[in-house]
Amino acid sequence: MAYTTIKVTDEVKRKLIKLAGEIQAKKGEEISLNDVIELLIDFYENKRKIKKGLKMNDFDGLIIEMDTDSSEKVDEVVYGKSTS
After folding, report:
1. What does pTM read for this prediction?
2. What pLDDT, on a 0 to 100 scale, did the predictor assign at position 39?
3. Fewer CB within 10 Å, N or C, the chain?
4. How far apart are alpha carbons 66 and 77 in whole angstroms?
5. Each residue of 13-71: pLDDT tens digit?
6. Calpha distance 43→15 (Å, rounded)
7. Closest Cα to residue 59, out of 45, 79, 44?
8. Residue 3 within any structural domain of the chain
């Protein structure tokens, strides 16, 4: 695995080290600053996916499985609420 040097401010380095310490305490295993940066990138990417929202083709499988004349079921599945 190849490594490179990145420049960060002392404040950012301090925060990365603090996060590494917190994660290490929870996991009980040694965490490198590289691991912390990877976790932050994964967190950002996952948040971005959630914020993108759903497109109509995301519902294709759901629509096929559902009863097309059941608007109550649609509300329950899509919005998480029951109309009864």
Report:
1. 0.57
2. 93
3. N
4. 10
5. 999 999 999 999 999 999 999 999 999 999 988 887 776 666 666 666 555 544 544 55
6. 16
7. 79
8. no
> Does 2 reside within a domain?
no
Judge whether 84 lies within some domain.
no
Q: Scanning the structure block, which residue is given the tokens 């971005």?
A: 48
Contact 72, 62 (CB under 8 A): no
Structure tokens at 31: 């965490």
Q: Which domain holds residue 61?
A: 10-79
The amino acid sitting at 57 is N
Give 13-49 as a 3 state SS string: HHHHHHHHHHHHHHHCCCCCHHHHHHHHHHHHHHHHH
Distance (Å, rounded) from C-alpha 38 to C-alpha 31? Answer: 11
The reply to whether 5 falls in a domain is no
